[in-house]
Specification:
This protein is an all-alpha fold and 114 residues long. The chain is built from two helices and no strands. The longest helix is centred in the middle third of the chain and has 95 residues. The radius of gyration is 44 Å and the shape is rod-shaped.
């Protein structure tokens, strides 16, 4: 009987040690879980910030594309105006024949409407 009690006492001590080890492991796992929850919050904030930055970058890109199109159209208009003025100057030069540069300038100015 004493042997059985001794065996039970030893088994009880082993179970108590195992229980304490499991409690310690459980505390450690709870800490890890809390750390992961905090990391998850940070990641969610970063994710929403990155999404907002992405949307802002897309809007900016669209704005730049519109500006490029507008500048291209302005460039085409200016080219037409330059070519028109060149043609007017050439026409004025041919109408005036040979004259002083002042005569050419005045003739060209009259043709342009200045």
């Amino acid at each position: 009987m004493k042997d059985q009690i001794g065996i039970l006492v030893v088994a009880n001590q082993e179970m108590e040690e195992e229980y304490q080890a499991m409690k310690k492991e459980n505390r450690s796992m709870k800490k890890d879980y809390q750390s992961m929850k905090e990391e998850n919050k940070v990641f969610k904030k970063e994710s929403s910030t990155l999404k907002a930055q992405k949307e802002e970058a897309e809007e900016y890109t669209e704005s730049l594309a519109t500006q490029v199109k507008n500048l291209s159209l302005e460039n085409q208009v200016m080219k037409v105006q330059i070519n028109t003025r060149k043609q007017m100057i050439e026409q004025a030069q041919s109408e005036l024949g040979t004259g002083t540069s002042s005569d050419l300038f005045c003739g060209a100015a009259r043709m342009i409407g200045v």
